[in-house]
Amino acid sequence: xxxxxxxxxxxxxxxxxxAPRSVFRLIAAEESRIVPSDQRSFLHxxxxxxxxxxxxxxxxLGAGEGLALEKLKALAAxxxxxxxxxxxxxxxxxxxxxPSFMAWMALNGKPADVVVALNANFAAFGTYCATIAKAMxxxxxxxxxxxxxxDFFGAPIPGADEQAAxxxxxxxxxxxxxxxxxxYARLFQDYELQFxxxxxxxxx
Length: 204
Description:
By secondary structure, this protein is an all-alpha fold. Helix content is 76%, strand content 0%. The radius of gyration is 17 Å and the shape is elongated.
């Protein structure tokens, strides 16, 4: 389930300063739809979960999305996106496939399987965000407030691996974890890459 980080065409361009500044406006606009959707998905999973620690795990992720949404406002503002511009923005299907699948997993996936899929993607997403935050300062002149969204997701979640292991083991013990975890993880990572590469193509 190793992430296919080498297939992410956008993050390398941002890291080198070669991506146009307009990519940050696109990211802010797309994430303004993704973050609230993911928050609702996590809270729905928290309500469904019965494995030890799973409610707390998903509820914590939901709370994190709420914090991220506040930090995203600074990036949106500095890229010229006010409330009206966000309402008028037409989202890209390739970017919105990720939260759509997250919502599907929230409705249909067994929580232990969803935890595997999420954890398989967390490391890659965190690395992307940390790389972008660094490049935003070095190559694009963004201040700390504008970088806050990426700083937030670029930092590891304390105790997340231990929580995830407990939830998955509980699912295994109750025969509620299935081979679907591998499918979810693969699809989740593919949709993650699709998000970044769609923006790379749109910004050309």
